[in-house]
Amino acid sequence: GTGRNEGKGWKRFQSYKGEAALPKEAENLRIYIDRKAQTIIFPIHGFAVPFHINTIKNVSKNDEGDFTYLRVNFQTPGQLAGKKEDTPFEDPDATFIRSITYRSPDGHRFDSISKQITDLKKEVNKREQQKKEMAD
Amino acid sequence: MTTQFENIYHGLSPEVGKFRIASSGMAWKGEDSENMMAMTAADIKWAQWMRVARNHQLRIGLKDRSRETFDGFSREDHDKLAQLLKQHFSVTLETKETSFKGWNWGVTDFQGMFGQDLAFLVSNKTAFELPLDHASNSNIAGRTEVSLEFVTPSGNKKAARNAPDEMVEIRFYVPGTATRDRGSDA
Fold first, then answer.
1. What is the pLDDT of residues B110-123, one digit of tens each?
2. Per the structure, how many domains does chain A have?
3. pLDDT tens per residue across span B8-38
4. Contact B102/A16, CB-based, under 8 Å?
5. Which residue in A44, A91, A128, B178 has a CA-CA distance of 20 to 30 Å to A134?
6. Do B86 and B25 belong together in one domain?
7. How many Cβ pairs closer than 8 A exist between chain A and B?
8. In sequence order, what are the beta bridge partners of A54?
């Protein structure tokens, strides 16, 4: 292996330039998919916290009793035991959010959110792949 | 003279109310419940301003070291609030910068009078804060992963339509010296 990519090869991305760009829907304290900004906004204790789709690895959902749990897994270093890591990070030594889990009595809504995030992720990956092919 | 701001939230409550400032102190009163929260001038020690989900938040530090938050202020309210706080209570309204970069990496920092808030900072700006006294459980897995679980206020009741989404767990990856051994992440 070539070891870690210490900041090398990391392509800069950003959800919003400032607070004024935050969509109005963030006010509802509910998970919101902002396709235009390629960003998911999560409510965390009163804050509207955007996560760019590039930071998201995948989403999983499960039903337990009256509730549906939605778990969002993020890209972090140290996830591929024994394998070479090819995802570059700006700062591999930083503290990373690895996952966040939400709970809702409304399983249909979490179904829809899960699908929207997965679709956006696929779309962005596909576009990246196309760009790479064009560059070759 | 009293100045009034409309459609202001107290804490994380979904109820809007009126927020009033006079030389004697400040008070919030709920529109539906008639709930009331009053702070006397002598108790007001500091004030902060930051962007949160429900527009801007006015955060007030009190003499007994507790604090109260009020969401729903618009950007344009800042100057008026700053002037009133200065005039009535000789308190400077400090701005705390919030990050909207959309990154999942940064620095954790214990803040508050007793380090009771775990702040997550992205490029030196606050992305969010977690009140640790609300955490119901914490776990450390494999020396590099820390998880925090939160009690959910709605309990087992069926949540109302348009109820906020509740975060029940967050996991951090904290690369310690242990993970710096080259060639092995095990």
1. 887 777 889 999 99
2. 1
3. 999 999 999 999 999 999 999 999 998 999 9
4. yes
5. A91
6. yes
7. 169
8. none
